[in-house]
Specification:
single chain; 493 residues; alpha/beta; Lysozyme-like; Muramoyl-pentapeptide Carboxypeptidase, domain 1; 6-stranded mixed beta sheet; 13 strands; 27% helix
Length: 493
């Protein structure tokens, strides 16, 4: 069985070595990260088979490296700029390398040692920005953990941007090349143009990050635009708006890429095969709001749009904005992907958690936003969703005897059968917060998935002292008290 070195890369790039772990430990870490509502996200090393990274919402990056793997240089020596044909240079010869423009964006979070690529190969060609999506969650401190991942695998852009928090990370100066693109044969696409400012946006290409996003309210993004304009990047998409993802490939014109400046998607770059960043609203990207490019969906106003804009079947910008507000109020753990314009279980559960945090119960906490819920979110008032999965207010009480009875009755009954749903759901919410149970199964029914999640809690979380029949997934007072202490409820016999 393969053994792995386990380490934690912190946001300041310091590393804590945790010792060796076995293959089953790494498999468990991967499985937890794959749970839809888990606040962790697994990524493979791009160049080293078997090496696994786990992005964490708190900004740390877990790194598992097979024992015995060969040495790996994160920053290989960077070759000098290549000679380019004379017709790629302006009259009179080369421009001064690094001439004019903002190299470091004021207010951006600097991550890493600032060493990325090198000087540009064709500094006489127009300046450009290349947009990527990370295909990972946003919000929280994923900005730090994703940046650490990109540095660790040697695929750094100059910038990483979170559209939810509006935070900007800078990994290297804008007047040097990034490392996020493949070459186009002998042509080094990372080094094309006077500058090629590559931006990895924390988002999924299938859910365009400009939906429900207002550049007028995003000073971090505006600072990126100002820096790009300082290098002469035109406010244009010369290859046209990025296409919908997934969808048919766009033409990747070498002539347009090499000879025109402006904003490009990863989907436009010759020699590359990625389809990101998805169907962005190009006017919003350029800071102009809606009205052009890919049409923006409605849903950016502050007035309550009506309950009919939410719930099963809803697909509009108000749903996206709701998700963004809930994430900002502590609901990140409910969203594995998104927020999206399509209503989903993550929206219902996050809304319900916010409503419960206000002390509401029954129909007042049904997971569908009403005028009061919307007003509290818009104005930033009310209680945030507790980070530990509790519902806020007075601590709920959960009886071990009730849980055992629920397990005995709910497991053999048809799916969805409930015995003590309120108490079971408190425990299920805690298991969701621990990353052991998918949110969609936290329904008040102590079924087989709840039993398996609780068994995982007994084995891996509750002190590590539960094995065999003691980790059967049926709560005991000791393991329940440990869970209660972490998630603000009271465990009783």
């Amino acid at each position: 069985m393969t053994s792995f070195h386990a380490a934690i890369v912190h946001p300041d790039r310091s590393i804590t070595y945790c010792g060796e772990v076995d293959e089953s430990h790494v498999a468990t870490a991967r499985a937890i990260a794959d749970i839809e509502t888990s606040p962790r996200f697994a990524r493979e090393h791009r160049n080293r088979p078997g090496s696994l990274f786990v992005l964490r919402e708190d900004g740390d990056l877990d790194w598992y490296e097979p024992v015995g793997a060969g040495p790996y240089t994160v920053h290989a020596p960077d070759p000098a700029p290549r000679d380019v044909p004379a017709d790629d240079l302006p009259e009179g010869g080369d421009l001064p390398r690094g001439a004019s423009g903002t190299a470091w964006i004021p207010g951006a979070i600097r991550i890493g040692d600032g060493v990325i690529g090198g000087a540009m190969d064709t500094p006489g060609n127009p300046a450009r920005v290349t947009l990527h999506t990370t295909e990972s969650p946003a919000g929280g401190r994923y900005l730090e953990s994703l940046s650490s991942y990109l540095i660790s695998v040697g695929s750094e852009p100059q910038l990483v941007y979170c559209p939810i928090t509006d935070r900007v990370a800078q990994l290297g100066p804008l007047n040097q090349s990034g490392r996020a693109l493949r070459n186009d044969g002998e042509r080094r696409t990372n080094r094309e143009g006077k500058v090629n400012i590559q931006i990895e946006v924390l988002a999924y290409a299938k859910n365009p990050w400009t939906t429900g996003w207002d550049p007028a309210q995003k000073p971090g993004w505006r600072s990126i635009l100002a820096a790009a304009r300082s290098w002469g990047v035109p406010d244009a998409f010369p290859a046209g708006p990025p296409g919908r993802y997934p969808g048919p490939d766009k033409p990747r014109s070498r002539s347009v890429w090499q000879n025109q400046g402006g904003f490009f998607g990863h989907c436009d770059v010759p020699g590359n095969d990625h389809g990101d960043p998805g169907a962005l609203d190009t006017d919003k990207v350029l800071g102009r709001g809606g009205g052009g490019g890919t049409p923006a969906q409605p849903g950016t106003g502050d007035a309550f749009p009506g309950a009919d804009q939410f719930g099963p079947g809803a697909d509009n910008g108000y749903v996206t904005r709701l998700g963004e507000m809930l994430i900002n109020r502590g609901g990140r753990r409910f969203y594995r992907v998104g927020p999206s314009s399509e209503w989903g279980d993550a929206d219902r559960r996050a809304t319900e958690a916010f409503q419960r945090a206000q002390g509401w119960t029954g129909s007042d906490a049904d997971g569908i936003p009403g005028p009061t819920t919307w007003e509290l979110l818009i104005t930033g008032r009310g209680n945030d969703i507790p980070a530990d999965g509790s519902s806020g207010g007075t601590q709920p009480s959960v009886s071990v005897a009730h849980l055992v009875t629920a397990a005995q009755r709910d497991i053999p009954a048809p799916d969805g059968h409930t015995t003590y749903p309120d108490e079971v759901e408190v425990v299920e919410d805690a298991l969701v917060a621990e990353g052991l149970l998918e949110g969609r199964y936290a329904d008040g029914s102590f079924g087989t998935r709840t039993r398996d999640a609780y068994s995982a809690w007994q084995r891996s979380k509750a002190g590590g002292s539960y094995t065999g029949s003691a980790a059967d997934g049926i709560p005991g007072l000791g393991s329940l008290r440990r869970l209660a202490a972490r998630h603000n409820f009271t465990a009783t016999p």
